[in-house]
Amino acid sequence: MKTQLIVINNIVFRLEKIFLGLSLALMVTLLSAGVFFRYVLNDPIVWSESIAKLLIVWMTFLGASIAFSEKSHIRVDSLVDYFPFKARQIIKHIVELFTVSIVAYMGYLGFIYFETTITSTSPILGISIGYFSFGMPILFAFSVFHILVNYISNIDKSEETQTC
Question: How far apart are CA 3 and CA 8, in angstroms?
Answer without folding.
Answer: 9
